[in-house]
Automatic annotation (TrEMBL), chain A:
Involved pathway(s): Phospholipid metabolism; CDP-diacylglycerol biosynthesis; CDP-diacylglycerol from sn-glycerol 3-phosphate: step 3/3
UniProtKB keywords: Membrane, Nucleotidyltransferase, Transferase, Transmembrane, Transmembrane helix
Annotated Pfam families: CTP_transf_1
Gene Ontology biological-process annotations: CDP-diacylglycerol biosynthetic process; peptidoglycan-based cell wall biogenesis
TM annotation in the entry: 7-28, 48-75, 96-113, 119-141, 153-171, 183-203, 224-242, 248-271
PROSITE patterns: CDS, PROKAR_LIPOPROTEIN
Entry EC no(s): 2.7.7.41
Reaction catalysed by this enzyme: a 1,2-diacyl-sn-glycero-3-phosphate + CTP + H(+) = a CDP-1,2-diacyl-sn-glycerol + diphosphate
Lineage: superkingdom: Bacteria
Name of the protein described by the UniProt record: Phosphatidate cytidylyltransferase
Record-stated family: Belongs to the CDS family.
Cellular localisation: Membrane
First and last residue of the signal peptide: none
From TrEMBL, chain B:
A Pfam family reported for this protein in Swiss-Prot or TrEMBL: Acyltransferase
Limits of the Phospholipid/glycerol acyltransferase domain: 30-151
UniProt name for this protein: Phospholipid/glycerol acyltransferase protein
InterPro entries named among the record's database cross-references: Plipid/glycerol_acylTrfase
GO biological process, one term: phosphatidic acid biosynthetic process
Pathway assigned in UniProt: Lipid metabolism
This protein's record includes keyword Transferase: yes
SMART domains: PlsC
Amino acid sequence: MSLIDKLSILFGGISALLGIASVIGFVLSCKVTSENGRATVANLNARIKAWWVMVAIFAVSFGLGRGVTVVLFALTSFYTLREFISLTPTRGADHLPLVAAFYVLLPLQYWLIWTDWYALFAILVPVYGFLLLPSLAALKGDAGEFLLRVSRIQWGLMLTVYCISHAPALLTLDIPGRPNEGFLLLFFLITVAQFSDVMQYVFGKLFGRTKVAPVVSPSKTVEGLVGGGLSAVAAGAGLWWITPFTPLQAAAMALAIVAMGFLGGLSLSAVKRSMGVKDWGTMISGHGGVLDRMDSLSFAAPVFFHLTRYFYT
Amino acid sequence: MIDLLLIGLTRFLVGGQAQWIGAVPDTRQRIYFANHASHLDTLLIWSALPRPLRGITHPIAAADYWGRGKLRRHIALKVLNAVLVERATQGPPGSALAPLRGVLADGESLVLFPEGTRGSERLPGPFKSGLYWLSQEFPEVELIPTYLDNPSRAFPKGTFLPVPISCTVRFGAPLMRRAGEEKDAFLERARAAVGALASDPVP
């Protein structure tokens, strides 16, 4: 089966799933009567609509090739970093480090992926960004809350640029006997991570009783986590045929993605809570900000990238 | 064409979302008065206004910045519909307001930054008296307090490049006139109306 055939089947399958979800959403919107239920169904339908748009964007960028996909993820990093910094207090003296983060480190990181310069890509932000940003901040001569300020910028950059950039970096992996199949790995990662989020939401809404971490994230429940996680692992195992993994290995990979995704969602909920907000932004109707959709992926991407790189290339 | 490009760039970099809190977008004659933190402010309000309002709204821009250089001047006058005012005029009191009176007399709307210069604080500083005089001369014009959230972080004074931090433009309820109100009391009330629209992000 050719790459195009596989991608057609995959996007066809996702469109079918979203079609079913849209029908369910429509039926629910006709049936619901209570005020509370109406709000939930309205949010659900906004989410489904946004999913259609996101899937369309991904399908188009996959179709247009690696360059466009890299640019798409660079934009994702840009918007998530913007959301992160917008909610994080900064001062005048942070301006120069922020200029460096947005206009130098972010494009450079994605340029390194584009040119497949792994050795520098892996250390640019954690090492050179780590050295550059505090230096620029210190040059301004403002020592107030210095450690806190540089940590925030460094953390935002790690999370939104470094971690997320590992997703398109899958396109650079050279798996023996499988040329140009990085797209399928990327598809696998995104599908498992997002399917896990969706199913955790669904299971949580239907059966959620026991909260995992009520203080950090009131919407996360054990029932949602187990049900959603298991469905995503099953979905991952079912997608083994697009990957270099056996079905069992695909399930294990999916489990790693689900576990990291859960931890990412939880950690970022803690960050949001510490800032006193519920969502990172308002850009994706029904979902909140871009980072609300990318939180699980940002934790899962580097782990999945390295597991695949070490064991399959 | 340039206008769409500028709006696109503003949205891309700083968002510039409009929140109509106490007023709705309307073509009636208005003076929007806002806090002033950066050179982005004019662009922000302009991007936040719906297209039909942009055509009849004239931001006040400092001639010493927006009038300098051919491109900037073109953008200010032809694209942003701006009225350039000299900040350093030494004429009789109120003479700097002449171009603003012209706009209001033509029945069109204004965007004013009554602090006169860019501040770096979240809350606006003391207002200059222009807003008071104009409100006296044109009592039928609606006065809309406007708060710009974050431009002082996205593009602080003394820097050359804005960074992408989301900025919001909030339009509040029209400032009601009070009969016989003194100038200073009015200006303080107007300043408070702008400050009241500031949301405090949790530190």
